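re the bet — no i am not wrong, look at it urself. input seq straight from the record:
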Amino acid sequence: MVSEVPGKNGKTKFFHMSSNEWVNDDVTHFMKSGNMLRSPANARLSEIAMFIPKNPNGSKIEYDINYGSPKGTIAGYKFTDLLTQILYLAPCNTQIATQNMIECIKKGATPEGHRIVEALIAGLTDKYLLDEDLDLEYSSVNELVLLPGTNLITKDAVDFKKVDELYNSGAWIKLHPITAKVWQTMLESKYKGRVVKSTASMYPIMKKSKKVYFTLSSETGCAAVLLGKSIGLIDNKEGKVGKTFDAVYPSLDRCGVKDKLINKFAALMSHPESGLITVHHENKEEAVNRFFENMKQYRHVKLSKKPGEEGDDIIDQELKQQLGNNQP
């Protein structure tokens, strides 16, 4: 199968489709982002991705996906990019991923972790090529609501009652770079006078705000933490959509460590076992290996189907074969 991908010079490039999606792959990002061009800053992530094994601990690993594993087990791994500077590695088991991050936070931040945080702050830039001059129109932003892309809005990922309340109290609404035209029109009509355009750069606006709201699927919350902003969530609790960072934010909130969010984040940077590997880690290969080595303490299972798909009875049979009577 062949896909057409617009080139930067306006000419169309043709690529064979691949079932193995990967970071910084043109076809992968075209299928996820359409014509929205990614910033060249993302290229640095390949320095980390090159060390990710294809079958870590005998399991598959997939880019930018969400699914679960049977309780107490790991049926696969996922990874995604954030802030153009980090690859987030995680088991496809939110409970294990969250507990793992909490353990890293409790170890505390090291000087190396704080160094990495400072480097991340200095390197903050938009994932996509956006217009940085547009921030001049929004100099009075106090509270900022960052909506996800259309793909999540249409899956009821957002609590729009909460967004309405924030708007009525004076908040501005930032449209995601990947927002369909019809949704742009509807949202601009609904939140008249205080909509930040999808084409506007996020960081100049975020730096002026005092509080930032986002969903658990958004990397922007990590940027808000790095910039020392107060944060809040706008997730629809009834929504069933997968949440990319559903271990990161809860671990910061529920770890029991009484400290500033940025110091907890520095602890995650201090210990690669957290799965947050940055372009600023001096030994990226070692950092990746430390994460997967730490995951060996958990049971790994091989399933022919992902939990939640049709055929849960098949999964039960496969678990019995692999774990016997010792199922978690």
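see?? The chain is about 35% helix and 15% strand. told u. also The first helix runs from residue 26 to 33. so pay up
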